[in-house]
Amino acid sequence: MADEIVLEPTVAVMNGDAVVAMCRQCGSVICATHNDHRDLTDCPCCGETAWSKVDVPISVFREARRG
C-alpha cells in the first residue's frame, strides 16, 4: 500500500498519563491529559458530567515517523 497510515501511542499514553473517555449521554469521545476519567468536567457537546473510560490499544495520537 502506498499511503498507509501508521498510528503510534504518545509518551503520555504509554506512561498512563492520558485517558480516553466517552460521554454516557451523547457518546462523544475525548482524550484528556490526565489519567482519571472521573475528574473530567462537562461534555463539550451535551453538558453531561458522567464519563466512561474507553480502553483502546492506541489513543492520543501523534504523527508516526516516516522512512
**Rg estimate, integer Å:** 14 Å
| Helix residue percentage | under 10%
Total domain modules: 1
- The proportion of residues in beta strands is 25-35%
- H and E string: EHEEEE
Strand order of the largest sheet: 3-2-4
Secondary structure: number of strands: 5
Unreliable spans: none
Number of helices: 1
- Sheet with most strands: 3 strands, antiparallel
From the helix content, strand content and strand pairing, which structural class follows? mainly beta
Shape: elongated
Spatial gap, N to C terminus: 14 Å
What number is the mean pLDDT? 75
Explain what you see.
β2 and β3 form a beta hairpin. The longest helix is centred in the N-terminal third of the chain and has 5 residues, at 11-15. The protein is mainly β and 67 residues long. It has one domain (7-63). A 3-stranded antiparallel β-sheet has the order 3-2-4, with no helix packed on it. Strands 1-5 form a two-stranded antiparallel sheet. The protein contains 1 helix and 5 strands. The chain has one helix at residues 11-15, and strands spanning 7-9, 19-23, 29-32, 51-53, 61-63.
SSE topology:
Layout: E1 7-9, H1 11-15, E2 19-23, E3 29-32, E4 51-53, E5 61-63
Antiparallel strand pairs: 1-5, 2-3, 2-4
Features:
67 residues; three-stranded antiparallel beta sheet; two-stranded antiparallel sheet
Provide a quick synopsis of the model.
The chain is mainly β. It is built from 1 helix and 5 strands. The protein has one helix spanning 11-15; strands spanning 7-9, 19-23, 29-32, 51-53, 61-63.
